[in-house]
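Render this sequence as a predicted structure.
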Amino acid sequence: MPVNNKQNGSGSGILKKLKNLFGMNIGTMLFGVLFIYMLFSMILYLTSSNIESYLVIAGPLSRNETYTGLAIREETVHKAETGGYVNYYAREGSKINANGVVYGISSSKKTEGTTELSNEELSSIRSQLQSFSKGFNASKFNTTYSFKYNLEGSILQYAGVTGGTSSSDSSDSTSSVVSYGNQTLSKAEQDGIVLYSMDGYENKSVSSLSTEDFDQNAYHETDLKTQNSVSAGDSLYTLISNENWSLMIPLSAKQAAKLADRSTVRVKFLKDDMTQTGDFSIVEIDGSKYGKIDFNKGLIRYAADRFLEIELVTNTVTGLKIPLSSIVTKEFYLIPSKYSTKNEDSQDIGFMVQGKDNNDSLSFVKASIYASIEEDTADNADKPEDQKSYIYYVDKKSFAEGDVIVSQKDQSKYVVSDVGVLEGVYCINQGYAVFRRIEILDQNEEYAITSKSTSYGLSRYDHIVRNADKVNEEEILY
């Protein structure tokens, strides 16, 4: 008994020493387990391949370049025939026909003139008022004045211009100056777009431009609208008389070389995101290169703008944008679609494979199909879409070379042997790598543009592997 007590005492002493040494309790044990887990995870991370993810986006290969263009038009500044107070009758930025009334001048601010409008004319005016009211934007209140001028011009047109107390010399409706009430009315001599401003570029042409003309900091526009009295010879309005116009854009040497072979170019106007195509050429002004873009329409939208922000739409190929480092090639077995069948229970597509030992036994093998390419034969080209034959690109893991596939339609046999190659990427939406076929439309040194409509292919916002050379398809990536 004394011996046992001694042994028990000795054993208890050892445990006590160990307990004191390590401070064993539940907190220490949990910390130890967590430390070991973190150490293991770090070692695993450092020794494994790091997979980078890339989100597939849609767009062009590179962004189109933007420019500031200088508009050159055929325009003339018209001056007052007589002195007095001005009443405007043409809406700024609108097109006016030849003999349309642009403005009237009277000796006083108050003008007189009466006429009776028909019910049809009154209905037309109400319609104009309703349209303006629906589209009114308080942040562009100045359009109210333009509408006022336009409305007064319409009423004047209904009055026949020479109605009321016209002077005797106003009977010639083709005259550029007529009288109405106590006003002297001025008509446009030709069709055009009316602007109540001038900026000194009205008499400039492409051949007379200098590099200083492109300096926006030095640009100044004068507003010609006034409530004060004007004198004969004062500038009152500008008339743009031709639908043909040009945009001049400064080019660097690199840009000029890139655009040198173009005769036409598509332009996107950043003001309203409208696009149109113009004739393109490169001219030299004071030793510098400039692009000249000629248009024959669309001027009325930008008549009030001397400088326009534009984008040259030169990158026209769009699709799914992916890095070149994501692209891999992979081999597949090629099997004609006519040998495929569907599982009666799951409706999965697969093939009936003949047993190696017993020729009469057939087993259904589900196939992972990665592409379906139309057979390139003359007979197949003439068939309707629902009767065409295709070649399936099937995962090599599903079959072995030499497997015999039996058609359920005519019992014909096909021996698996032909191999084809597809370009693709690894999609990791589900946390593991799945090959997806791609069709490259365009590429540069870093990225490729692929088709959006490739069957068994990618979709926008898919996650793919950026560094495809580090992928193991069997490995769960995250």
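Summary. The longest helix spans residues 26-47. Residues 161-174 have pLDDT under 50 and may be disordered.
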